[in-house]
Design brief:
single chain; transposase activity; three-stranded antiparallel sheet; 51% helix; 14 helices; Transposase_IS30-like; mainly alpha; 281 residues; 3 strands; Transposase IS30-like HTH domain-containing protein
């Protein structure tokens, strides 16, 4: 006859105590189970949750695993290998989130402290470092690209991390209003002259999400249209200005080359009317 299992109420008491921030040993005492049982429950929970919650930041399950391994005397490098995390991540976690009074590492309070810090708004690097911001602004006004600025700062300030910044951060400072490190008017100093940044797929040369499904291409036009035999067929195009602040539509009759130009309001009306026709079948 096997050992009787524990009812759900016992486990509820155990996890309730864990949620309060107490150690798994004290939680086991409160639930009336042995230390080995308490540890087995924690290990089982960690195995299930770690695979589900793995992301950029440490999860509570991973922090519980770190707590267990610290008690076992594991090094940060060994813990990192078991979790698939860099050893520096584990070292940083243990340094930041230990209990201030006892120096103990408690997973639940550590998770709460980490989430509290992440929720607080933070100033960007350029907003925190006026000297760096001034140097970036000066070089932007000299028409240096963010890539050139980031590379040159590493050369000019090789031993001063506060005076180094990535080109991606500079772009974010320019295009994201809420970061507050650089005035958006400085986008005029960029060689592209864009006031909006292209999406990542376009920057990578992938050209957006791909062709429209089922699209009829211009090469599939009937012969009488492509060879301009029968009058009455028109070809339209849309020309937009900088930042889409202006637009004009063109219509050309293919046989006679008769042209018509549509102002921005008429272009908008035609677009809305076309969508209505497509929706109404």
């Amino acid at each position: 006859m096997g050992r009787p299992g524990f009812g759900p109420g016992v486990r509820s008491v155990f996890w309730s105590e864990i949620g309060k921030g107490v150690s798994w040993r004290r939680a086991a005492v409160a639930a009336g189970v042995s230390q080995s049982t308490g540890r087995a429950w924690v290990a089982e929970h960690v195995r299930m949750r770690t695979d589900q919650e793995r992301g950029l930041r440490l999860s509570l399950a991973e922090r519980i695993e770190i707590g267990l391994r610290v008690e076992d005397g594991w090094s940060a490098r060994r813990i990192g290998r078991s979790l698939g995390r860099p050893a520096s991540t584990i070292t940083r976690e243990l340094g930041r989130n230990r209990h201030s009074a006892t120096g103990e590492y408690r997973p639940a309070p550590a998770d709460a402290m980490a989430k509290g810090r992440a929720a607080r708004p933070k100033k960007s690097k350029l907003a925190r470092c006026p000297k760096l911001a001034g140097e970036v602004i000066r070089r932007l006004e000299l028409r240096h690209s963010p890539e050139q600025i980031a590379a040159r700062l590493k050369v000019d300030f090789p031993h001063d991390g506060s005076m180094q910044i990535s080109h991606e951060t500079i772009y974010q400072e320019l295009y994201v209003h809420t970061r507050g490190g650089l005035d958006r008017d400085l986008t005029r100093c960029l060689r592209s002259g864009r006031v909006r940044r292209r999406p990542p797929r376009s920057r990578a040369g992938k050209g957006g999400p791909g062709p429209i499904q089922g699209m009829v291409t211009i090469a599939q036009r009937p012969v009488e249209v492509s060879q301009r035999v029968v009058p009455g067929h028109w070809e339209g195009d849309l020309i937009t200005g900088a930042a889409n602040q202006s637009a004009i539509g063109t219509l050309v009759e293919l046989t006679t080359s008769l042209s018509r130009f549509l102002c921005k309001r008429l272009v908008l009306f035609c677009s809305i009317y076309r969508c209505w026709l497509m929706r109404s079948g």
